[in-house]
Specification:
2 copies of one chain form a homodimer. Chain A is built from 12 helices and 21 strands. The first copy, chain A, has 366 residues and is α/β, with parallel strands linked by helices. Chain A has one domain: 5-stranded Propeller (L-arginine/glycine Amidinotransferase, Chain A). In chain A, strand 11 and strand 12 form a beta hairpin. Chains A and B meet through helix 3, strand 4 and helix 6 of A and helix 3, strand 4 and helix 6 of B.
Chain lengths: 366, 366
Amino acid sequence: MKIINSTPRADGFHMPAEFAPHYGCIMIFPERADSWQYGGYAARRAFVEVAAAISESEKVTVCASEKQYENARRLLPERVRVVEMSSNDAWARDYAPTFVTDGKTLRGINWGFNAWGGLVDGLYFPWDLDDKMARKLCDLYEIDMYDLCNFILEGGSIHVDGEGTCITTEACLLSKGRNPNLTKEEIENYLREFLNVEKIIWLKNGIFGDETNEHVDNICAFVKPAEVVLAWTEDRADPQYELSRACLETLENTTDARGRRIKVHKMLCPKPVTITAEECAGLDTMNFAPTRTAGERLAASYVNFYIANNAVVMPIFNDPNDDLAVDLLTKLFPTRKIFPVYARDILIGGGNIHCITQQIPLAKNE
Amino acid sequence: MKIINSTPRADGFHMPAEFAPHYGCIMIFPERADSWQYGGYAARRAFVEVAAAISESEKVTVCASEKQYENARRLLPERVRVVEMSSNDAWARDYAPTFVTDGKTLRGINWGFNAWGGLVDGLYFPWDLDDKMARKLCDLYEIDMYDLCNFILEGGSIHVDGEGTCITTEACLLSKGRNPNLTKEEIENYLREFLNVEKIIWLKNGIFGDETNEHVDNICAFVKPAEVVLAWTEDRADPQYELSRACLETLENTTDARGRRIKVHKMLCPKPVTITAEECAGLDTMNFAPTRTAGERLAASYVNFYIANNAVVMPIFNDPNDDLAVDLLTKLFPTRKIFPVYARDILIGGGNIHCITQQIPLAKNE
């Protein structure tokens, strides 16, 4: 594996949109008992369902620790590849490489990772194994790598349309726990150079209570160029209302890199999802404290879906709005099969289906 | 990864000779401080030299533990792939899969592994991580696998000519620590079915003091069909003399699967190699005892070489016979570059270059 010292922009590489053709997908098998109930048993069922759905139309590799390797191999379909790889947790979106291509070759970007805020407001300690994964994955796939380990960024904090536009949130990218010494303009420059985009659309916030400092991938996602879904609520008493409304205003008053206005599809959230006392009792403690408390609101959103080659794998919550969300994605992705996965046990870990997946774009020569 | 319940013979698959074209080679990064001096530092230098030489003409993947991953990545050439994989030690020959092909597709065999004798006379405990590697490697390479986990066999205990003949040693395959409930005929049948060979040539012994129960790969190797090198000494006072002489007698009085007589090239061993007190002091203890004692004779032999696509990587010992061995292999492999590697620090671990490598044959459709 070679480390490349230039930038994707300089080399004619860019990050394709998630809806562009994939070579495959990377996931990580969940294990830590302070993130996932019952020693990970609950989450693993849901992860396996997600991997099975995605692997119907692209090659899925699941990284598992030595301890979980046998479980992963037994529970996952034969067509899914399991490789041993150590991690601190299971958020492939946030620490697998971001892949870029020039239409012929694939390369990876290794962003720095500090558990969503490091010693300022990070979610666990240590995070060294997560941080090493992008490098190991580039090596595994035998692709060269841009090493940006000193710039903190998670894959879930950016969405691109593959045509020059990136959407992100100020709440996350300007947080004190990531790159406090960089100005907004300097951060923009990193995105321009490494994603190879022209225009960055800054939403103020994400989903209320989202402990990633409000990643964009939980509130807003491209479904095609110049067209997004936006997590929404009509309940003005819900703190989410103001956050979503502000996003809508930003989106309605901007254009993308090609000068197009952006069509926004409102995607109603489920009713607030809160964790039960029984669920909390199924979680190990961290730093001598419970990681969650009964009644705590979880950052539930249907926007946290994964677009596979022939499918969209989306979270549902056993909520009346599930059907609306399924219908909306069915309409927006007419060529893809919609796979709803009951995702409460992923949500309890702090994210959802998009957060636990990372697509590998198809480079044309493969 | 699919488990196949038939046998290679039934499916038209066989194990090719090592001198047939390779897709690549698997190695494991050495780490355990009771096998390798100075926490593995000494051995790693030699392993890196071996990997560098092999990777000049085939794709090399080195498996490294999480702890050694960074060292491996830094020390090995960029063209070598490093993947994280846990092991108990570093003997790829003995627990990586044995690969078979039908000329189009590659499959792996997962033999059982019990550290060269299990609780009878095995060399360390536990050996579970080693034993899992063949399965993980088949998964990694996305090939299907014959699972023979209840039949104990190490890759270093067999050599094949790719044309129906296997050479092995009675000292190893009939040892009490491996398959004590199987008769010699039953063991032969496993070899016939899984390597897809017709004729098994049983040498009585291997190299004097070889703690693998005298693997064939340290005493005798095919250089082409019906032609072998045999480790030799002219010193009648050396206990090796009788062992090598008996092998010669066996080889001279048999024919291979195709009825050919076997041409034997005697390969003079180096003078007995013994471990020094200083070297012993560089090894951690195991079970509260030193793993080696000063003056202990090591099983040094030039036969423990690896045949790569365009090279033969061979051990040398700073011995007057080094040149003879290099000259012999130069003559026997006229199309390959001979890479002598000073291998004392590998030998101290208990094996040599062949023991730390496992070739992956080229399946024609790749």
